[in-house]
């Protein structure tokens, strides 16, 4: 009895390659939408010559537009919602940076209201975002 098998050459099926490429394309498109950052249209104030650039991971952005409306990470909010969110953030992730991004024409009273909330909560990791200095 002869039990030996005939060896066939190994062939990679190429039929499903287009399906895999299509699924990868869908996956990449969905992942890129997850990191979408909502922005509010404002005119940044100009910075002084000594400005530090910070990384954008682990941040909460508070926007104030020309009309004085406040946005939290691009979503319209009021001061009470900001106080609740920052208080919860302070308990869960105290190293989170808060970026205050205000239009250059907004009255400082609007920005000061946010600063008073942060001061009341004793939140110390606050950054003012400004436009790069142009000499």
Task: Write a brief structural summary.
By secondary structure, the protein is of the alpha/beta class.
As a percent range, the share of strand residues is 15-25%
- Per the CATH scheme, the topology name of the domain at 59-128 is Nucleotidyltransferase, domain 5
Beginning-to-end CA distance, first to last residue:
91 Å
Mean pLDDT: 78
Class derived from helix and strand content: alpha/beta
Reading side by side through the largest sheet, how are the strands ordered? 3-2-1-4-5
Low-confidence stretches: none
CATH class of the domain at 59-128: Alpha Beta
Tertiary shape: elongated
Number-wise, the strands total 5
Radius of gyration: 26 Å
Helix content: 25-40%
Features:
135 residues; alpha/beta; Nucleotidyltransferase, domain 5; 5-stranded mixed sheet; 3 helices; 5 strands; elongated
Q: What does it look like?
A:
With 135 residues, the chain is of the alpha/beta class. It has a domain at 59-128: Nucleotidyltransferase, domain 5. Helices cover 33% and strands 16% of the residues. A five-stranded mixed sheet has the order 3-2-1-4-5. A hairpin with a 2-residue loop joins strand 2 (70-72) and strand 3 (75-77). Helix 2 packs parallel to helix 3. The protein starts with 16 loop residues before the first helix and ends in a 7-residue tail after the last strand.
């Amino acid at each position: 009895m002869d039990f030996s098998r005939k060896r066939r050459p190994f062939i990679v099926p190429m039929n499903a390659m287009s399906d895999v490429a299509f699924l990868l394309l869908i996956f990449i498109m969905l992942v890129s939408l997850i990191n979408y950052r909502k922005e509010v249209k404002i005119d940044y104030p100009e910075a002084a010559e000594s400005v530090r650039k910070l990384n954008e991971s682990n941040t909460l952005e508070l926007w104030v537009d020309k009309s004085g409306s406040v946005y939290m990470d691009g979503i319209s909010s009021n001061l009470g919602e900001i106080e609740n969110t920052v208080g919860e953030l302070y308990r869960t992730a105290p190293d989170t940076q808060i970026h205050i991004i205000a239009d250059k024409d907004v009255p400082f009273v609007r920005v000061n209201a946010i600063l008073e909330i942060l001061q009341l909560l004793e939140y110390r990791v606050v950054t003012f975002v400004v436009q790069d200095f142009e000499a």
